[in-house]
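Practice problem: predict the structure.
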Amino acid sequence: MTTLFDPIRLGALCAPNRILMAPLTRTRGTRGHAATDLMSTYYAQRAGAGLIISEAIGVSRQGLGWPFATGLWRDDQVAGWKRVTDAVHTAGGRIIAQLWHMGRMVHPSFVGGAAPVSSSATRAPGRAHTYDGREPYALARPLELAEIPRVVEDYRRAAANAMAAGFDGVQIHAANGYLIDQFLRDNANHRDDIYGGPIENRMRFLSDVAQAVVGEVGGDRTSVRLSPNGDTQGVNDSNPEPLFVAVAQRLDDIGIAFLELREPPRDGTLGTGDRDPLAPAIRGAFHAPLVLNSDLTPEQGAALVSSGAAEAISFGRLFISNPDLPIRIERGIPLARYDASTFYTQGPEGYIDYAPARRKETRA
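Answer:
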């Protein structure tokens, strides 16, 4: 029986366990969107994960609209992340960079007052995080056909910069209502050109990006994250199963190393709201390792791996307050609680001050 503590090959990477660290935005970068020494400490503390997937990292100035988040389009940003990857590798870990374009979620204040871009002229619900507090999202403008190759090139360049920064690979963020997801799902994509309408067209942008990134760093160092089921930041699809099965088949053909699905549990299974889980259908179309994520307990994750429903599990918030999460799970040590009020602050509190378990501590 396969367990969370068995090693696994994820493309070019050999992970010593199947407990992955999910991407987590923590806003500890600079206003210039560079990584800091505080981040080096944070990630090195969590090097016991089978693989760390970094926080989302902006591929371009146009695509990043989150205060104190980081980017990979300038040399100083590459240098900042190089200090982080060196710290992780020194601690014995492995880390890949998640590449991010926020699309319509970018507030104009981040881009000199310009409108955000998306697949279509839509507006995200709610309010954006800005340096001046929460502000209403702006109406996005559709990317013109002639602009799309430049955005694809932004992803390719960011992937190259990630490797220059010492990352072990990259993950394309195609989930959670951000730009690629805005192309994939039909309530956000109203285009009538080759990037809109039928499924084959709506997944074209992701396919273009994936091929560009794989061409730069290799399929064995490329992964993709999807959120196939339910509304995420106002992005949804009227018929998600055929869409995401087709996407999985296309990514399988391109030859990526692994696919991560954010699909929260419902009644002990996977899925959200009233919808059935899509992971089983996607698994039938994708033959490399499948990683499942979102609010799973260690017990749920272990059951999914032992049943063959997934090859690995990525944990997010549990890694925030448990830097030694794999050791705690393996030894049955109680998990520490996280303080949500410190998720998006800028200091060390709630970031690098969660202590590892005492060596002799065990579950009562």
